[in-house]
Amino acid sequence: SKLKEARDIAMEEMKQLATQKGANAIVGIDVDYEVVRDGMLMVAISGTAVRV
Asked: How far apart are alpha carbons 5 and 22 in whole angstroms?
């Protein structure tokens, strides 16, 4: 589904950013979905990049 695809893209981008900063794990992941307008959906994802 489009929702899963959007979440997967956001997760992959977060992983890439964490790796660029030297992290090898992400903890405390939070995924939020917001309806913006005209049926558009925004996926916001956050977490803490760590090195273990």
From this structure: 26
